[in-house]
Every structure is written in C-alpha cells, then in structure tokens.
C-alpha cells in the first residue's frame, strides 16, 4: 500500500532568528490548529489547483539539458478547462537513438466540482511500446466536498487489484476525528495505522494520536496532547512516542498568560536520558511594555535538582514602535547579570532590514563579531553581504555575498554567490543562476554555473524559476546545466463553477511571496488576517484575502487567519 502521510501540525515555537537555541524560551507559542482533511494527496491536489485569470500562465513543457551526460529530461503538462493538471508525462533523451523516449506518466481526473477523482501512474514499456498501468488512487467525497476515502490499487495481470484503503471520519462540525489506513491481505482489509483527533468545545485540538495495529490491537506510536485556558491560549503541551518497545512521554510544557494574552511564564520538562521519567529542565518569566512587545525574558535551568537563574534577554525597539532594534543576552554570575552577546539591527524606511550586527562582551567592552548587510534599490534587494570583524586590523572583512540583478518588471535575471578570501583580498565565484523571461514575465530559460579559477563554468544543479511576473515559482525536479520552459495560458471558462472542498487548513499563495499574498480558506469566511514577525510583533492587520506585503523585508513571517471555523496560522517566506 502506498502510504499517505498525514500532515501533522504539532506545536510551533517561533524563535527569534539568528539567536541561540536557548532563546526559544522567549517565543510566542503557536496553538495547534483544528483541521478537517489533511491527506497528503488531497492537499497536493489543493496546492496544484491553478489560479484562473485573463493573464495567468502555467508551464506545459520543461526540458532539462545535461550536455556532458547527454541524458536530458523533459516534462510535459496538460490542463483541464478549469486550470487543473490533467496529465504529466516525463521523457528521457536516450543517447543510442538520439531521440526522446517516454518514461512515466501521471493522469488526473476530476468530478464536476473539481475534486480530484482518480490518479493513475503509468510506466512506458519500451519492448512493447505501450503504457503500462502501475498505481491508481480513487477518491470519494461527502456531499459537502470533504474527503471520505481513498482507495489504492495496483495493476496486476491486466486488472486493477485493491491494495489499501484510507477512510476519514468527522465530527458534527466537520473536523477530522479519525484517519484509518488499512491494507488488503488475501482479499480482506486489515488494519495498519490510525490517526485520532479530539477537540474541546472551542474546537481547539486536544489530542493528536497515532497508533499501529499490532497483534490484533492498537498500539500507541505517537501522541500530542494540548490544554487551553478560557481564552483559547495554549496552556500545556505533552509529547510522547514508542521507543524500543515502550511508550514514553518525552516532553511536557506549560504556559501562563496576562490579560492581553501575552505569554508570561513557561515551564519545560524533558525525558532524554532514557530513564522513562520526565525531569524538570527549564522555567522562566517574560515581560512586555505597554505596546505588548516582549522586553525581557529570564530563564532558570534545573541543575541537579536546584533551579539556577542563568539567562536574561533584553529587547529594544525604535521610537516608532515598528522595528526590533537590539537584543542583549546576559549570563548570570553570582548575584549579577554579566553581558554576553548583543544583536543590533538597522532599517531603511518603515520595515526594511538593512543590517544586523553581532557582538560579544569582552574585558568590559563590546567587541564586534559578525555583520550582515542588505542593499536595496527602489525597495528591491540587490546585494547581501556577510562580514567578520578582525580585531588585529580593527576592521570589517567580507566573507560572503549574494548579488541580484533584476529586469524592469522585478524578475531576477542574474543571481550570484561569492566567497571572500582575506589572504589575497579577492572574491571567489561560488554559484550562479541566470534567467530569461518572455513578454508575459514567465521564466523561459534558466542556467546553472559554478565558479572555478575566476571563471563561471556550466554546473549541474536544480534550477528554480519564477513565472507570472514573480507570483509563481517552478522548482526544477532534475539537476541540469540549463532548462527551457514554455507556457500555456489558463482561464476559467464562463459557466464553470469552481468549488474547492471544504478544509479548515488555510492556503496562502504564492509562498515564497514578494509583493502580495492571497489567503484562501475553502468555503470558510475569512474574518481577519494578521501578519507577525518572528518576534511575535503584529506588523499588519486586514480583513482582505489579498494583502500587499511589498513593504516587508526579506524573511519569514507568521500569517494568522481568523475564519468562522477558528484561527489558523501558516509561515510565509517573503522572497528576496
């Protein structure tokens, strides 16, 4: 049976970037989200759904060239009238015949509501010059478009044979309560694995439980448990799994909050010494200013049964309350806090990060260690550099850089990575990608280069290229020296109703994003969208499904979406 991987959403602790692992304790806690349908194939189908529109394009032929090996690859896509992938054919260029030969094919069929109905995988038999079936998945849905079951089949002796079945069960509100995986053995269904989910009265998930069928009974494999306060803040999290034949609880965490829902205390227990028992590990307190910004975290660690105050982190912000400007990490020495490390940040405009400097406290003064700088032109990143401070010369010396060249539409045409050697004060070429675009802003050609002895030479790598003027990204699946792409315009015909199956998991696209993001929640109504940085600071709040993010600097952000079915969160990368 082809296993379907459930996309589990466990607790996400959003740490302050570029800071030591201990500083995760200063994190905003993300509550696990409720969900309805999380089958891997189902989600892949949702993500593969193509946006319809007058000026929207999708790749139809991608060719990967490997001139040294003469082992080229090609993928050809076709689409339905509603813009869904209908087929994918992979070809290989064979040197003996100097021609293209079929390799494998994937076929997709949809119902009248655009739900994925069947998926078929085929291989090409070169001896008989015909396509041979390999696998088939059949999807069934409830009347509200939630996934009911997936039947898995294999091709054997000219006929489809059942190999497995996954069924989905929901509660009265439509949230997934059980995903049961079964195999066919001797023509009969036999249990294999099940995922069980429970919820409280506010639809917060309270248990996420994985079990395996062993010796005619369900045996615990992995379990996540959660509790919440009256305001739906996560108050505890417990995680355990089966190891060496025994189920052990591996981690337990507890949190409390103030009246503004800011996390103010945390307490961690771990079991990582195979003793089978949880042991106190860390605890701490967090403070905030009048704007609900995190200003201080103090952490105690358990050392041989005694709590020892060990770490303090101080946060500062600019006068406009917009940007995080510094972080100071202090270590405890007796009854005093002794400075250890400092991180400082500068910005251009409202929220464009231009530099980050890291220093260490030595002999009663701060000493530079590393620096990162971003250079922008008209709000677009054109150069990123890393430097080390050399005390002997009392100066900064470059170590690494990334450079970007864009066309007039903002598409990247040249991307380079270089390393700097102080011994001869020279830049050495590392990796480079060059791109060409058509008049519609679709990437039609991408080349990979490697640096050697001051020259750029052809290099084998996977190439990613943007299309639809940077709104979409095609990620190359084959290593190659260069690839060529052609596109087909996709538009939704009049009279076709596009209905997405109801899922509580939100979809945010494009991701990575650059100028804007679109938020979709199936049939659920979107009430509010909030954008947070990794320090937990609210940057933007709107009630729209399309949000302009052009003012955000490059990095990772948390998008919180409030719908009529609950509050959900996703990480989104804002591209360079």
Q: Can you walk me through this structure?
A:
The structure is a single chain. With 576 residues, this protein is mainly β. It has a domain at 506-576: Immunoglobulin-like (Sandwich), CATH 2.60.40. 2% of the residues lie in helices and 63% in strands. The protein has 1 helix and 40 strands. The chain has a 28-stranded antiparallel beta barrel. Strands 37-36-39-40 form a 4-stranded antiparallel beta sheet, with no helix packed on it. A 3-stranded antiparallel beta sheet has the order 34-35-38, with no helix packed on it. A hairpin with a 5-residue loop joins strand 26 (395-406) and strand 27 (412-421). It is globular, with a radius of gyration of 27 Å. Residues 1-31, 33-54 and 492-505 have low confidence and may be disordered.
Tally of DSSP helical segments: 1
CATH fold-level topology of the domain at 506-576? Immunoglobulin-like
Instruction: Report low-confidence residues grouped into runs of 5 or more.
Output: 1-31, 33-54, 492-505
Major β-sheet profile: 28 strands, antiparallel, barrel
Strand content: over 45%
Helix content: under 10%
Coarse shape: globular
* Secondary-structure content class: mainly beta
Separation, N- and C-terminal Cα atoms? 41 Å
Compute the average pLDDT.
Answer: 81
Find the CATH superfamily of the domain at 506-576.
Answer: Immunoglobulins
State the name of the first-level CATH class of the domain at 506-576: Mainly Beta
Number of strands: 40
**CATH architecture designation of the domain at 506-576:** Sandwich
Radius of gyration: 27 Å
